[in-house]
Specification:
271 residues, alpha/beta, Rossmann fold, 10 helices, 19% strand
Length: 271
């Protein structure tokens, strides 16, 4: 079996044709399906929800934990994770199983590169290159509006925003939105509500917690509780809530380019 060095610097023996794959990354899971490997995925995390066929696959853990009894039962020949929050989790799993960790993208280009790397690791290089070409065409077709300032927040069990090291900030920039946290040398940021109010961004993007029932009145209560009622984005009705119950901006699989960015472009047309 070939030996490949993953993002954590570990040398991992990877099968030429993995037959029993477990993926703990929603983005990786989505990509595996698009590469024609859905039938070989024997376990996923509870947060892997794209495509809809994932509902038929066994859930073997959460984003940073696993049921070891199920892993031993499946006896995977390859476990795939992503860096960042899953780093320590991946290193622990790697003591018992072949675990390959990909780098969490820090740019939109990194999302395309992730597809390429998944194709290399799983023996689907040609299929991955076709996907890359398709995703680059999508990017080339996007319309960029005149520059505005913006703030984006995701409820990940608490409010989280993003700095210059995040693919989310890069995506906003591509669309003509300068994030108020865009110059901060961080990936994740715990937002300061007073700083956001004083920055007075032109647009606000808000992504509720995954699977939650978030209603328009909930957004009004949130804005009121933070003292944001007089912000330009609020007064001009330029506050946009992500659609549906699934992760949206938080998801960095191929659908981020095909679905999230076009949705954001459409939202920005009213600004």
């Amino acid at each position: 079996m070939p030996e490949l060095t993953d993002h954590l610097g570990r040398i991992v023996e990877v099968p030429d044709e993995p037959q029993r794959i477990i993926s703990f990354s929603p983005a990786v899971t989505e990509t595996l399906f698009e590469l024609g490997l859905g039938g070989r995925i024997k376990g996923i995390s509870a947060f892997c929800s794209r495509p809809k066929e994932t509902s038929k696959i066994r859930k073997v853990g959460s984003y940073g934990s696993a049921r070891m009894d199920l892993l031993h039962e499946i006896n995977p020949d390859l476990i795939l994770t992503i860096s960042g929050f899953q780093k320590d989790f991946a290193e622990k799993l790697g003591t018992e199983f072949p675990v390959y960790t990909f780098e969490l993208p820090s740019s939109v280009a990194g999302i395309v590169d992730l597809v390429s790397k998944i194709g290399i690791v799983t023996g689907r290089k040609n299929e991955a290159r076709y996907m890359e070409f398709e995703l680059l065409k999508y990017l080339g077709s996007l319309r960029r509006r005149p520059s505005v300032t913006g703030y984006l927040e995701i409820d990940l069990g608490g409010p989280v925003s993003f700095g210059s090291l995040s693919y989310i900030t890069d995506a906003l920039s591509i669309l003509g939105v300068k994030s108020i946290y865009g110059d901060h040398l961080n990936e994740w940021i715990q937002p300061d509500f007073n700083y956001i109010r004083d920055s007075d961004p032109d647009v606000l993007f808000y992504e509720p917690k995954m699977y939650s029932k978030f209603l328009p009145e909930d957004l009004k209560k949130l804005i009121s509780s933070r003292g944001w009622g007089n912000m330009n984005a609020v007064k001009n009705n330029h506050v946009f809530t992500s659609p549906g119950p699934l992760d949206f901006f938080a998801h960095h699989g191929p659908s981020f380019i095909r679905e999230v960015l076009p949705w954001a472009v459409s939202a920005l047309e009213s600004v």
